[in-house]
Structure formats: C-alpha cells, structure tokens
C-alpha cells in the first residue's frame, strides 16, 4: 500500500488592491509549485481583482 502524502495544500488568497484576505482554497502542490494568481470578486473592493497566494 502506498504512503499517503499531503498533495493537496490549503492556501489563502489575498486581494492585490486592498490587501484583504478573501478566500481559502486548496491546490495540488505537485502540479503547481509556484504561487497562484486568480481573478476573483473582492467583497471589500466590490469589484473583480487579482488575488494572490500568501504564506501562512
């Protein structure tokens, strides 16, 4: 039986314009080793902005 490694990692996305923590999601660490950027709706800015992954 194979070992169970934590491939899925929980990340926090932060808005780039207002610097507020907005979203918590998961990503596969083996497929995307670099920090991810997603365009999502920011409830603090009330517009769609780029959200970046931050350190925990």
Automatic annotation (TrEMBL):
Keywords, comma-separated and alphabetical: Ribonucleoprotein, Ribosomal protein
Example of a GO biological process term: translation
Pfam families in the record: Ribosomal_L33
Listed InterPro entries: Ribosomal_bL33 (IPR001705), Ribosomal_bL33_sf (IPR038584), Ribosomal_zn-bd (IPR011332)
One Gene Ontology molecular-function label: structural constituent of ribosome
Superkingdom to which the source organism belongs: Eukaryota
UniProt GO cellular component terms: cytoplasm; ribonucleoprotein complex; ribosome
Keyword Ubl conjugation found: no
HAMAP family cross-referenced by the UniProt entry: Ribosomal_bL33
Entry similarity comment: Belongs to the bacterial ribosomal protein bL33 family.
The protein's name in its UniProt record: 50S ribosomal protein L33, chloroplastic
Species, as recorded: Gossypium raimondii
């Amino acid at each position: 039986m194979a070992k169970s490694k934590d491939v899925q990692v929980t990340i926090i996305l932060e808005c780039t314009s207002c610097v507020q923590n907005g979203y918590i999601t998961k990503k596969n660490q083996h497929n995307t080793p670099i920090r991810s950027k997603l365009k999502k709706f920011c409830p603090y800015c009330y517009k769609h902005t780029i959200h970046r992954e931050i350190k925990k």
